[in-house]
Amino acid sequence: MVAPLQDIQALVCFARVVELGSFTKAAAALKVSKSVVSTKTAALEARLGQPLLLRTTRRVSTTAAGLRVYGHARKMLDAATVATEGASDAERGLVRLSAPVSLGQLHLARPVATFLSESPGVRLELILDDRLVDLVEQRIDLALRITKLEDSSLLARRLAWVPLRFCASPAYLADKGRPNSPADLVRHNCLRYRLLRADHEWRFYGPAGRVPLEVGGNFETSNGTMLREAAIAGVGLAILPHFMVASALESGELVTVLDEYAPRPLGLYAVRSGKHVPPVLKRLLELLGDAFRGPAWREARR
């Protein structure tokens, strides 16, 4: 049985609201008014006899019924895309890859070069951005994220664990003293990464479990490389991923402190929004999986 046209239009509007988390963004993506998206979504809920979305003044979330309906809607839209376009951008030869700035600078040149040499006719667009980009809105085929993955609407493959280190230069510690417990940090200059949700709070894990501590300092930045260089220059203490400081630890430019209180490792994930994975994207995933192995990417237990 073919679904009525109004149901298909409503499902399209509903799916975009779920994926973009906003009626306004969904309307912009579909190039219609916000009232059209709202009306068609409400009509779909009325037809099904149950709420699919929970609306507040700040956000839109999906009910359990909404998740089920979205799953079916997404399959329908994916099939429609294949039928009308024939192939994704990746299958046509354009792959858009997003990654954090420092990760891309330090570790993506080799897998990217290998990928391009093996894939004649393919163009790769690498977007380096420490902010979380919207995969659907930005038409990103694959994104690398260092995080505790919470967005269940994305398909993810963990490539590695990323241990985190408390680091400082030997000169800084010689001048300010070596902290022996998290409480000692109230007397230290703590350098902060400003894109974290709680950038003034550091979390420590010791014998008594998690110990949150509000820290202070005179420098914060949205770039991990700059944070590392500030620590090497003796500005203060920083929390940095192991892959960024491995060479500085080996050379002695940095040393770790409070190892027994180290934060829990984060996962390095390759995430995508669609289930269909073209062969060219599968090969890129394989190369990325190979790249993120070795000493800097050794398995770290939670």
Descriptive overview:
With 302 residues, the protein is α/β, with parallel strands linked by helices. It folds into 3 domains: 5-85, Winged helix-like DNA-binding domain superfamily/Winged helix DNA-binding domain (Arc Repressor Mutant, subunit A); 89-162 and 266-297, D-Maltodextrin-Binding Protein, domain 2; 164-261, 3-Layer(aba) Sandwich (D-Maltodextrin-Binding Protein, domain 2). The chain is 40% helix and 23% strand. It has 11 helices and 14 strands. It has helices at 5-20, 23-30, 34-48, 64-85, 89-92, 101-107, 109-118, 170-176, 224-232, 242-251, 279-291, and strands at residues 53-55, 60-62, 94-99, 123-128, 142-147, 155-162, 164-168, 190-193, 201-206, 209-214, 220-221, 237-241, 255-257, 266-272. The strands form 4 sheets. A 5-stranded mixed β-sheet has the order 4-3-5-14-6. A 5-stranded mixed β-sheet has the order 11-8-12-7-13. It has a two-stranded antiparallel sheet with strand order 1-2. Strand 1 (53-55) and strand 2 (60-62) form a beta hairpin. Helix 7 (109-118) runs antiparallel to helix 11 (279-291). The longest helix has 22 residues, at 64-85. It is globular. The model has no long low-confidence stretch (mean pLDDT 84).
Keywords:
D-Maltodextrin-Binding Protein, domain 2, 302 residues, alpha/beta, Arc Repressor Mutant, subunit A, five-stranded mixed sheet
Quick description:
This protein is of the alpha/beta class and 302 residues long. It contains eleven helices and 14 strands.
